[in-house]
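User: Okay, second chain of the day. Same drill as before: sequence in, structure tokens out.
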Amino acid sequence: MNPTAAPRLGAWAVSGGAAADPTVPMRHPLDPDPVRSSKAVAVLILGVVSLLTGPMVGGVIPATLALLLARSTRAEMAEAAGFLTGVRYVRWGETLAWIGIVLAATALVVASIVGLMHVAATPPGPHLDPNTN
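Assistant: Same drill. Structure tokens below.
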């Protein structure tokens, strides 16, 4: 290694303990450590539940909860200015929630079509015994 070359990112200079690369901003010692948002994990879990229960039309409820929770989670993450992580979890949870809603709507349409086909197959009029006067 060349002794005159600049140290790598994350390396500490010997004098003063300052970061060797001036382009990397230093964290203040009192800043909290970045942590994963527990709401982001909840959004992902609700998204998975809505995906699994979507074909049974019950997926609409967890999907709605996931989308509402995702909205507040994104606002909290923006307010935390980088100290809350989990944006990928929120994005995946929202995507899965929308897929769950689409599956529920598809199941409802298919059930309606099957019901209409069943009603259309039955003959009109009263269903009486042929021996009834």
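DSSP finds three helices and two strands in the chain.

User: Thanks, on to the next one.
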